[in-house]
Amino acid sequence: MTENDMLIEVRDLRKVFRRGGRDIVAVHGASFSMASGRNLGIVGESGSGKSTIARMLMGVEKATAGTVSVCGEDMTIPARSAAARRRRAKLTQMVYQDPFGSLDSRQTVASCLREVLRIHGVTAAAAREARIAELCDLVGLSAVQRERTPRDLSGGQRQRVAIARALAVQPEIIVLDEAVAALDISIQAQILNLLADVQRETGTNYVLISHDLAVVGHLTDDVVVMRHGRIVEQGVTAEVLGNPTDEYTRILRDSVPSLDWRQPGVLEAVAERVGPRTNFATRNISVPSTLERTR
């Protein structure tokens, strides 16, 4: 595989925030890459630095040190012109955890998509309307739903709108920042299957930011595991999750709810590694199985 096959190249990335008169290091010297045609997962608990890395990939957060290259463009250099911002929008788009918060509550679905297309040079009204219909069909939104505002849609429908908006500019990469975390399990499965279908149709690549290893295992080919701003393990998703070499990755994996938790000794083993705060063995826990991998 050559350097040209790499969509993302991150080297020695560091981010320091100044808070209350002291430095807080959010990312410590992270290095990883993402090849064309392979989805990448970045996983870890809250505060691990994964969302900060996502923002630096998008170019909306400035790195303290290191390099971030997306499709050959140095994202550490700010995009200062409207033309540069439009060019970068075609490289990366983001779908956020809260679809309601990321959408304008006053705009209908069609109006939202129409605005994006106008900004990116689709000036003919007929062409815009045809593209809106195409995008809504792709993400499973009906003609009636196109004329509704976000408050009149369900959480899953709002996330479909957010995905359609991201797809409108035909980006190389869509960053999914906990994009299904706020949805219930059945809607999660629908959105994940939708994302897989969209990828087959469009060829768009995904970077999935998540703490949920079941979701990561469903959608990604490669994974980076983070803890306290550092990468503790990375590699092919199936290998890392199937046979982790780092203790933290093993704890994350063993914390995924599954029917295996009902086997004797599993809960006790997890509790021993995590600590004494929760006595799993004395609780009557009934949990659903994880998402089945359908790809």
TrEMBL record:
> Which Gene Ontology MF annotations are present?
ATP binding; ATP hydrolysis activity
- Please report the stretch or stretches of sequence annotated as the ABC transporter domain: 8-253
Pfam families for this protein: ABC_tran
User: Known PROSITE patterns for this protein?
Assistant: ABC_TRANSPORTER_1, ABC_TRANSPORTER_2
GO term, biological process aspect, one: transmembrane transport
Presence of the UniProt keyword Transmembrane in the record: no
Keywords assigned by UniProt, alphabetized: ATP-binding, Nucleotide-binding, Transport
This protein's record includes keyword Nucleotidyltransferase:
no
What CDD domains does this protein's entry cite?
A: ABC_NikE_OppD_transporters
The UniProt similarity line reads: Belongs to the ABC transporter superfamily.
What protein name applies here? Peptide/nickel transport system ATP-binding protein
Question: Which organism is this entry from?
Answer: Glaciibacter psychrotolerans
